[in-house]
Design brief:
By secondary structure, the chain is α+β, with helices and mostly antiparallel strands. The protein has a single domain (about 5-40, about 50-95), classed as Alpha-Beta Plaits, CATH 3.30.70.100. It is about 35% helix and about 35% strand. InterPro entries: Dimeric_a/b-barrel, DUF1330.
């Protein structure tokens, strides 16, 4: 069953750290089986929503998404980001057909 990695950025504090993270994170997540479905600033938001950067990836499973997060390549990306952003990452299982 597919799983979805959802990242929302409350604040980007350091553009250079963010760029270093992105250069490492994209290839790491793709190599781990992730497919980027959407990324950018929200085009519309409702109720308690806010205009913020969001990223959505699809993985083959929750286990694959967690392994991607915990893998050495993504951990190197996190080290590059350091305190450069305030964000939330969630992994949500897809619906069964």
């Amino acid at each position: 069953m597919s799983a979805y990695w959802i990242s929302t950025y409350a604040d980007i504090l350091d553009d250079e750290k963010m760029a270093a993270y992105a250069a490492l994170a994209g290839p790491a997540l793709t190599a781990a089986g992730g497919t980027f479905l959407a990324r950018g600033t929200a085009a519309a938001w409702f109720e308690q929503g806010v205009e913020q950067r969001s990223v959505l990836l699809e993985f083959p499973s929750v286990e694959a998404a967690v392994a991607a997060h915990d893998g050495a390549d993504y951990q190197a990306a996190l080290a590059a980001l350091g305190d450069g952003a305030v964000r939330d990452i969630r992994i949500v299982p897809g619906l069964q057909p």
